[in-house]
Design brief:
single chain, alpha/beta, 7 strands
Length: 295
């Protein structure tokens, strides 16, 4: 996914690389850096809240079970990785494999659900040692299981509205959008091509989705949402304030053979009108169209 883009030449695996590539602005606040040193770790500002507290408690309790319980070893190992990644004097070592920019994504891999289930299991194990529970085991154990299920269901009912309020809604039909991507990918892959140069637009997302649709085409640029030379090149072809002939010349100068276009931008209609023999419409699937440029 990095091929053909500016990131393939500017991947930073240390803070010195970040400084050399002038990428500190892109690093943001997701890592905490020890000033004047090469050491950094996942920022504590992105690890607050109940899930991390549950994970911490589960990791501590797993110390008493990990010798004989594989599940406890998994919980302990997972959250130790997070702890090592947060501590700057060890986090930089993990960052040498992930890059500083991707280090914080380790938080996505933490088994919070498993940690919560582990605590429930530990609670059940402890209750089994209570004399009263042992005496009435036949009745108490089913009651405990039913109580846990009831508590979980009630928690879902009360927590769901709060959780959904934290999810950004775009009022988009995501299923239809991805079905459209799949339909367009099928049509593009059915063409007999030999790695032609392609560019997408007029929005950056359409250009960036190309490597996910097909491997039969060679994107001129990739990941153009951020700044940089690749975005400048993409804007020189897909920007709005470009004259008709300048755009047409840029397309040929960069040896563009195919255009993946979302919608019907005015500049494309003008190109079709003024150069009907050089731009050929191939097919359309809902919001996306594919055009071929002929020298």
């Amino acid at each position: 996914r990095f091929g053909g883009g500016e990131y393939s030449q500017t991947l930073s695996f240390s803070l010195s690389d970040v400084a050399e590539n002038n990428d500190f602005d892109r690093l943001g606040s997701r890592v905490d850096i020890v000033e004047g040193s090469p050491y950094y770790g996942i920022s504590r500002s992105i690890t607050p809240g109940l899930p991390y507290k549950v994970g911490l408690v589960a990791a501590v309790i797993s110390l008493f079970f990990f010798w004989r319980n594989k599940f406890a070893r998994y919980i302990l190992a997972a959250f130790l990785v997070l702890g090592v990644s947060m501590f700057p004097y060890t986090g930089w070592i993990v960052g040498m494999f992930t890059t500083p920019f991707q280090l914080w994504r380790l938080t996505w891999l933490m088994p919070f659900g498993f940690a919560f289930a582990f605590l429930i299991w530990v609670g059940l194990q402890v209750t089994q040692k209570i004399p009263l529970v042992q005496q009435w085991k036949q009745w108490v154990n089913p009651l405990l299981y039913i109580s846990i299920y009831v508590v979980l269901i009630v928690a879902i009912v009360f927590v769901r509205p709060w959780a959904m309020s934290n999810v950004a809604t775009k009022n988009l039909d995501e299923v239809e959008i991805y079905n459209n991507y799949l339909g367009m990918a099928k049509l593009m892959n059915e063409l007999d091509v030999n790695a032609p140069v392609i560019i997408g637009g007029p929005d950056a997302a359409t250009n960036s989705i190309i490597p996910s649709l097909t491997m039969k085409y060679n994107p001129l640029v990739f990941r153009v949402q951020a700044g940089g030379e690749q975005r400048k090149l993409w804007l020189s072809l897909m920007g709005e304030d470009i004259s008709l002939e300048e755009r047409y010349a840029q397309l040929h100068e960069n040896k563009i053979e195919y255009l993946l276009i979302k919608g019907d931008p005015d500049w494309l209609m003008d190109l079709l009108k003024n150069h009907p023999d050089n731009i050929v419409f191939l097919f359309k699937d809902r919001r996306f169209s594919l055009y071929k440029l002929i020298p």
